[in-house]
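Figure caption, in words: inputs first, then the predicted bound structure.
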Amino acid sequence: MGETSYGKILISEEQIRNRIKELGAQITKDYEDKKLLLVGILNGCVYFMTDLSREIDKLLQIDFMVVSSYGSSTSTSGVVKIIKDLNRSIEGFDVLIIEDIVDTGLTLSYIKEVLEARKPNSVKICTLVNKIGRRKVDIDVDYVGFEIPDEFIIGYGMDYAEKYRNLKDVLIIRPELI
Ligand code: IMP
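Bound structure (inosinic acid present):
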């Protein structure tokens, strides 16, 4: 795999594009008769959300949340605060949460609980990458782009200290940059 000045390519732009096509086709099928609302968790979801939503071939709506977790720069503490909430009611919608990465699972288990209390028809989770080995809470992730090892990654929406989000590939960050 290619080496770049920011790190080693773990998932290439082309692999991402191909996998998103597959996920989009699957979601199109699964939500055929449903009132689909994609809820992106900013900022990490931006690229994944825009690409995935356009591979879903049905009417849907989109909305976004911003949450912050109090933790160190490379891990989550589990204390989550909603900085920006949805602008609407989700009652009766089939909500699909769109995340860049599930790591400990603490952020998503909190968000899922909050959204489920608002009487949607269903709440499911779609993540581009899944670091399953790091889970601290048991959470069902319904759609996974890629299972990855326990490495700190950047690119395609994912950051380190708010940098590197706009890289086209997903990279394992060079240790010297941390
Ligand atoms: P969780 O609550 O531990 O599942 O944390 C999920 C959040 O932590 C993600 O939305 C990311 O913002 C951040 N995160 C976890 N691992 C990484 C990584 O390897 N690179 C970049 N961000 C990460």
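The chain is about 20% helix and 30% strand.
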